[in-house]
Amino acid sequence: MRTFWTLLKREVIDHIAYFVGALVLSGLLTALLVSISLGLEGGDRELVAIGGLIPATIVVVAGLCALGVAQMYTDRTRNVSAFLTALPVTRPQIFAARIAAGVLAILILLLPLMIAGSIVLGLQRAEVPLYRGVLADLFRSVFLTCLACYSVGIYAGWNRGSLAPTLGVLPIVMLVPLLLGIKGFGAEVAVILGIFILACLIGAWCRFSSSSL
Amino acid sequence: MDEHPIVVENLVKYYEGRCVLDGIGLKVPRGCIYGLLGRNGCGKTTLIRALLGLEPPTRGRTLLLGQDSRNLTAGTRARIGYVAEGHNLIQNYRVRRLIGLCKDLSLRWNAEFFDHLMETFRLPMDRKVKELSAGMRAQLNLALAMAADPELLILDDPTLGLDTVARRQFLELAIDLIQKQDRTILFSSHILGDVERIADRVGIMAGGKLAVDCELEELKRRVRKLRILFPSEAPENLYITEIINQRNTGREMVLTVANWNEQKQAILETFGPDSCSELVMTLEDIFIECTRPSNAAVLEGSEV
């Protein structure tokens, strides 16, 4: 377990800009959520929500994909795994710590938002009646969408040193959040995203575990 | 305890259609200091990388400390020290951070010994690895490999890129460390003097094959270089097997041959030479003869 924590710490410190970015973005989005819910009324509320949500989605999606790419690409170019595997560390441990770091970044981004959301929901009476567990569904779907974008980055980042295939995945990543707009936040979306994430991570693992370091 | 900490079985490796390793077989006994020699690009590093599981083989398998290299557990890796060619450390880390990382990941860190080495080297802890000189990087890499107190130490051309003074310092320290503790060492180099100083068994790679695999003294004993003078023009063909190199100049023939014995001596006598004297061969002479492209097969067939 000590090895896992050390590798996780290494991943976080090496990509600290992404984690700080996630924290800052989470703070901004929480402030936006609170101000929309408590401070604005009517048309202003929708305008600010849409105006804030679209750029935030693009930043989150691109940022998480970039984190995945950065983790794999810098490993490849700096021979990080080659060095680590000369120590008492195996490839599955390196990969697991990497994914755990990605999940941690997503949680840093989403947890404050979800906590703020639940508080706001508790304080305010919704204009339309909401079913029990709406927040859980929302969290699950957004979390899986974020993880899917990150997984695409992890998959695309392990390449032969060319940035072209890496940048090529950005349009695909931008399409992932649209799934929420089309299918909503139900179990169906969770299944689709789950399969997509699994495929990306298995693909990335196969590349990572079978290639030269 | 494994009798052979390093085992290579019929290892084949292709790179983009080019055969780099062609059926290598090797067993290094426990406690042996094995010097792996070969010209640049002959596959030494590929063999070492395959041993460490960094390079997947096309065919065959390699075992380190009794475990398949592709599935080395963390526990087995903890028993292996590795100094990579070019000292492949994480370049953008500061020395202090790199040491901390290795220490945290190590399963048996000998802090006292490591501190002693760091005191000897006096490396700047706050400088980034990429800002260190090649000599400093070599020292840091060796110290990190040795701090884990490994049973098996693999050094891939550790003195590559070092100047003469740094190379000498590195080797003296390495010899000191090696002699103090009984461990198996695989040492690859293209500097023959280095290998001659510390190896007790050598392997010479040529043409993707292990042309020679024997004890250093045995190699020197088996490969002979003879200067033969004939009464008239030296014959084109002596009909002797395992000739590594033959050079005729008028009456004189300089013959390098593997496994010289009485039978070969008798065949030579039938040509009625005036004189036959043996020339002293250094490891460098043997290496040069062995790595001529046409001679790899001769030596491999002769099982030197």
In a nutshell, what does this entry contain?
With 213 residues, chain A is mainly α.
Structure overview:
- The complex is a heterodimer of chains A (213) and B (304).
- Chain A has ten helices and no strands.
- By secondary structure, chain A is mainly α.
- In chain A, helix 2 (16-39) packs parallel to helix 5 (91-123) and helix 3 runs parallel beside helix 6 (134-157).
- Chain A has helices spanning 2-14, 16-39, 42-78, 80-84, 91-123, 134-157, 164-168, 170-175, 178-183, 187-210.
- Chain A has one domain (2-210).
- The mean pLDDT of chain A is 87.
- A six-stranded mixed beta sheet of chain B has the order 6-7-8-3-9-10, sandwiched between helices.
- The longest helix of chain B is centred in the middle third of the chain and has 17 residues, at 164-180.
- Chain B has two domains: 6-199, 3-Layer(aba) Sandwich (Rossmann fold); 220-301, no CATH class.
- The model of chain B has no long low-confidence stretch (mean pLDDT 84).
- Chain B has helices at 44-51, 74-77, 95-105, 111-121, 134-147, 164-180, 192-198, 216-222, 262-269, 283-290, 296-302; strands at 6-15, 18-28, 33-38, 59-64, 67-68, 80-83, 152-156, 184-189, 201-206, 209-215, 223-229, 243-249, 252-258, 275-279.
- The chains are: A mainly alpha (213), B alpha/beta (304).
- The interface between A and B is medium-sized, with 22 and 28 residues.
**How many DSSP helices of chain A?**
10
Number of strands of chain A: 0
Quickly give the structural class of chain A: mainly alpha
> What amount of the residues of chain A lies in strands?
under 5%
State the order of secondary-structure elements of chain A, H for helix, E for strand: HHHHHHHHHH
Greatest chain-chain interface? A-B, 22 and 28 residues
